[in-house]
Amino acid sequence: MSREKRYSIGEMSEICKISKKTLRYYDEIGIVTPCRNDYNNYRYYTEDALLSVLVLKYYKQMGFTLNEMRSFFEGAIPNIYNEISASFQKKIAELTQEKQKIENQHASVCGWYDLIREAQMVIENNIHEVSVRYVEPSKYIYLDYQYNNDIKSIIINLDFTNFVEKQENMIVGPVIVQFSSFDERLNDRPQPVRLMQKTLLPCADAVSDVIGGTVMASCYHIGCIDGIGSAYRRIARWAEQQGYCLGKGSYERYVTDYWTTSNSEQHVTEVMVAIHRRCESSV
What is the pLDDT of residues 183-205, one digit of tens each? Predict the structure, then answer.
């Protein structure tokens, strides 16, 4: 290709896969400007201009703005590589921050999607049976609170939300409430509870606790959480029949709840209680 070749704006648009409107804007701000024929004032682009557009497209791919690109093309600036290096360092910092933001969003969406799929499978298969599973130990941020028979204000809790934000952290996955007394929860009486949830960022030991590292009885409850006593009764009957003792407290893991849908009949809650054989010392 001859470096003397001239291109109309239409040819530039077709070759570079860029709109005429964009080319006119580049001309307007002085980044890629056409030449003018002295004879008829006809505007045309040179091969250098064509190549500049390709370079611009690559810088745009990296996320640079037109103003940032401008300095890269102004080669007369003293210490041009200092200028370019500073721009690249700034862009790397911006993209690193944006990458972390996207990763956090991705983790949040995936975590919520997993809960939705879990709830779907529980409802579709009408799972109510008590099962036994080893719960892997996992760290959760927590806030101690007083339950006064209003479960919705516990699940969607302003104090807990503000507490997490004060720690400069973000939550992911289901809300879990640790009830201090299995029997009091069975009878829906007020009691101290611990609101718990996983965080996206590392959490200080002073405001975190571990759930798991033990065998638990698990039972799903489908429907309005106000009727969750039925799951507690199933666990109590099962433990008696199978020769297990139950831990003093319980955990309620809200798979889907008011955060997901206002239709309480579609809520799914997992009740978890630590268990041990009767021959062992009580917990």
Answer: 999 999 999 999 999 999 999 99
